[in-house]
Amino acid sequence: MRLVPLLALGAILLVSWRAPAAAKEKKLPEKFNKSPYSLMSLSVGTPNSGWQLRAKKLKSSPHLRVKKGSGAFVYGHPALVLMLHRTSRDVGRMARGAKMLVGDLSAKSGGPLSGHRSHQSGRDADVGFYVRDPKGRAVTLDRFRQFGGDGKAKDGSGYMFDDHRNWLLVQSWIQDRRAGISHIFVAKPLRKRLLDYARKNKNYKLHLNAAAVLLKQPRSSSAHDDHFHVRIACPKRQAEICRG
Ligand SMILES: [Zn+2]
Which CATH architecture best describes the domain 40-232? Predict the structure, then answer.
């Protein structure tokens, strides 16, 4: 006797729980609810106040490790996810020995994410620095570590900021025209360190100006001395719904 009302209540709850996402979708300009947009991943609003639809999940690969604890928040626009795979492979092939460590992207449907101001619309990713252990060997860490402008880990562990690989990563991001990187946030002393490193090698000088423009320490949030925060531009043909 009581099962039926309970099932009915369950159905009502399920419908009301699902309603916000569906309602959001309906508020998009009409064409975005039709093919081909209805089949695409969409990045809506700004990184600080936005959401996403049909996001792609980032998975670990031979060149990339998803950081423990970030597994539920590694959803992003495919342009971002594929860019991370391409550039981690690029660095891995040029300097074998370490994987890219990736933390949070966005939640599956986007929206506010604990510990971040942005990361709401599937265009942001936190990427750990490439590091060397106290013996100088390239290693992949399982968490982010803070580094100072002297290249040393601030926790006194002896880990060193790997100038070579971190520069190769920045260079690979700059050259990745498919996704179009719009920002790379990093602490000022590490920005200076990377640019100084590139200035010493004539092969890297070519990308110095682009790096100087893209690398910046955000004014409004934490110092980014334990990871890069990389953001891609709005995906193609989504300028009407994607901002910032
Ligand atoms: Zn971030």
Answer: 2-Layer Sandwich (3.30)
